[in-house]
Amino acid sequence: MDIIKDFLMINNQTFKKTISSLKSNWMIIFTGIVYIILNTAIFTVVLSIFRGVLSIFAGIILAIVSASLISNYLYLLYNIINYNRMTFQDFKDGFKYFLRKVYTIFFFAWIGSYLLSLIQGMLGFNAYILNIIIMVSILFLLNSLPETLYLKVLDPMNSIMYSIDFMKENWLNWLLPNAIFYVALYYLTGNILTDLFTTHLSFGFNFGTSSIIKYLLGQGVFSFMMIYRGHLFKLLSTSTRRKRMFMNKF
């Protein structure tokens, strides 16, 4: 019973904080459009310039660009969760604020994918099953990694370890609300979120009225989810169930 009470209390508090945060910072819903425009423009320019033997530099530059956009979004969430505000200056500063952390995580992921490709070469057909197992494991064990990066003062490696420990301690309180959001987004937009560092929903460049409304509605739910995750992580990572139940008595 204490587990159920704790779950309801946590999500009740988180829901109220998220409503307040989204009301004050509703512009975050439209950041997805900005990211799509920036991403498309930069990718087009870089891929048109760096061709042939220079394509290796294109990969490095595009990885930095992706990390920079993710850094920007995480910094906006950081300010919303901690200060309940999101300014244009925050948007300008955000491209570099968490860049080193995010790019280091990308580097770790690249090393992991390289080692996995070596193992797959040896396993043959079973490599597909191994790849699915690893991807699902990462999605679960590191699900709170984005929040760890922007709400905890830890280096990238310790952020990974902290995220794993956090999931071990709070798997029910964390995964159940997130599962509800993921299912809602899937039925609303058809998007299946498998990327830990998703910053926006895909648009598809369909400019019909219904498509635009559907996209903005999806972005609204996605923004609500990301703010919800931030408040939920902050609450869970700064308390224990015993402490929460004790404080709730007062």
SSE arrangement:
Blueprint: H1 2-24, H2 31-49, H3 55-83, H4 88-97, H5 99-123, H6 126-141, H7 145-151, H8 156-189, H9 209-237, H10 241-248
Helix pairs in contact: 1-9, 2-3, 3-4, 3-5, 3-7, 3-9, 5-6, 8-9
Keywords:
250 residues, membrane, transmembrane, mainly alpha, transmembrane helix, single chain, 10 helices, globular
General description of the model:
Keywords: Membrane, Transmembrane, Transmembrane helix. The chain crosses the membrane at residues 26-50, 56-81, 102-122, 128-150, 171-192, 212-236. The protein has 250 residues and is mainly α. It has one domain (2-248). The protein contains 10 helices and no strands. The protein has helices at residues 2-24, 31-49, 55-83, 88-97, 99-123, 126-141, 145-151, 156-189, 209-237, 241-248. The longest helix is centred in the C-terminal third of the chain and has 34 residues, at 156-189.
Strand content: under 5%
Look at the structure and give the mean pLDDT: 89
**Tally of extended strands?**
0
Helix content: over 70%
Order of helices and strands: HHHHHHHHHH
Major sheet description: none
Estimated structural class = mainly alpha
Using the alpha-carbon principal axes, give the shape.
globular
* SS element count, helices: 10
Number of domains: 1
Give the N-terminus to C-terminus distance in angstroms: 19 Å
Residue stretches low in confidence (pLDDT < 50, at least 5 long) are none
Q: Compute the gyration radius: what is it?
A: 19 Å
